[in-house]
Write a structure and sequence with these properties.
Elements (H helix, E strand, L loop, with lengths): L5 E2 L2 E2 L11 H8 L18 E7 L4 H6 L5 H5 L5 E4 L6 H10 L3 H4 L5 E3 L6 E3 L9 H4 L5 H7 L3 E6 L7 H7 L3 E4 L3 H11 L5 E7 L1 H9 L4 H20 L4 E7 L4 E2 L5 E3 L4 H4 L2 E7 L2 E6 L4 H12 L3 E5 H6 L17 E5 L4 E3 L12 E2 L5 H4 E6 L1
Parallel strand pairs: 3-9, 3-10, 7-8, 7-9, 12-17
Antiparallel strand pairs: 1-2, 4-19, 5-6, 10-19, 11-18, 13-14, 14-16, 15-16
Protein name: Alkaline phosphatase family protein
InterPro entries: Alkaline_phosphatase_core_sf, Phosphodiest/P_Trfase
Organism: Nocardioides bizhenqiangii
Length: 378
């Protein structure tokens, strides 16, 4: 924890060291192969096969806070590493960094919803849009493809509904896809896929994140789901032979947002002035401005939100390294102004995203609870 840098109460992404994009290159090194040089800050023990279990929404702080509910996963903390998500700390951005080894400014999935350049439309990276080619949106060769070319069998074990989805194609193409829907068949599929050596088997579970959004991370519902995930992870470890390594990671953490800490753009005409499109999500907004309005938008949002959020121009956010080096093609996908919430605040846009009023747990910003992720090796 002491070597994770903080800046103005925010946690900086540890790109090139211990970010989610560094995981697969580190696994490759542990399997005896090299992708993009040394993995630097992330050093994993050697093995012939690796299973990476990604638990959506399991922040490192949440796991520490509720260690008694997840005894197996918590038992791995003392001998493991804490890493970071990228910015924003959201699923589509994180999963694409994981699958490509690139920073968000490189792979181009820079938010849950982002502007399709040249239009007034948003791309929802989880649902996707049939008019947007995922290979054109994210054209870089994935780490999965490159590992397969090196003779490493790479498998993705995930729900059947995600096969061929825009996000799967953008982030995880090149792997053998195994569609499963239940815990038992998921474990069996992982054991079978990882039997070949060398191999990397990636398995995903999104139930904890869904529960946090719906009920909050301080709810009994979330704690029950965490206990179930812990049991699943332990079952998976027990089902795997001893010579196969299990690496448990997350894509981001989560914070609960109380009703009195929510600002709705739709209820404040001043906040909507000069903006033609609002993207991102409630904890991390992309604001796309009409010509010449950026300075006024920044001034208005800073004055209104005060210490509840950091309001930056695109150039300022890039200058802070939030997205890593940004490809010129990716630049217009980032808001002219970006808004990263502090504490437990959130900026809702009920006109464009009415479902946000129903969410309790949220993520996307740069607080420790959202950014810090466990990298647990067993």
């Amino acid at each position: 924890m002491s070597d994770i840098r903080t800046m103005e109460e925010f946690c900086e992404p540890a790109y090139g060291e211990r970010s989610l994009g560094d995981v697969v290159p580190a696994v490759a090194a542990a399997l005896g192969h090299t992708l993009d040089g040394d993995p630097r800050g992330l050093d994993l023990p050697g093995a012939s096969s690796y299973v990476v279990f990604l638990i959506d929404g399991l922040g490192a702080n949440l796991l520490r806070r509720h260690a008694e509910v997840a005894p197996y996963l918590a038992s791995l903390l003392p001998t493991s590493t804490i890493g970071t998500a990228g910015v924003p700390s959201t699923t589509s951005t994180s999963l694409t960094s994981f699958g490509t080894g690139l920073v968000p400014g490189g792979h181009g999935l820079v938010g849950f919803t982002t502007r399709v350049p040249g239009t007034e439309n948003l791309l929802n990276a989880l649902i996707w849009d049939a008019d947007v080619d995922p290979i054109e949106w994210q054209p870089h060769t994935t780490t999965f493809t490159r590992l397969q070319a090196l003779g490493v069998r790479v498998s993705v074990v995930n729900k059947r509904e995600f096969l061929g989805s825009g996000l799967t194609v953008a982030a995880h193409r090149g792997a053998d896809y195994v569609g499963v829907d239940r815990v038992g068949e998921r474990i069996a599929a992982v054991v079978a896929a990882s039997a070949e050596a060398p191999s990397l088997t990636y398995v995903y579970d999104g139930d904890l994140d869904w529960t946090g959004h719906r009920w909050g991370v301080d709810s009994s519902h979330w704690l029950q789901q965490l206990a179930m995930i812990d049991h699943e992870a332990e079952q998976l470890r027990e089902a795997l032979p001893a010579d196969r390594r299990l690496l448990v990671v997350a894509d981001h953490g989560m914070v609960d947002v109380p009703q009195d800490d929510r600002i709705d753009v739709a209820a404040d005409d001043a906040l909507g002035s000069g903006i033609f499109l609002i993207g991102g999500e409630a904890r991390f907004r992309h604001l796309y401005c009409v010509g010449g309005a950026v300075a006024d938008v920044v001034d208005t949002w800073r004055a209104t939100l005060a210490d509840r959020a950091e309001v930056l121009t695109r150039a300022e956010a890039i200058g802070r390294g939030w997205f890593g080096p940004v490809d010129p093609v990716v630049l217009p996908r980032i808001g002219d102004v970006v808004v990263a919430c502090r504490g437990t605040s959130a900026v809702l846009s009920t006109d464009g995203f009415p479902y946000e009023t129903r969410l309790i747990g949220m993520h996307g910003s740069l607080t420790d609870d959202e950014m810090l992720i466990p990298l647990l090796v067993d």
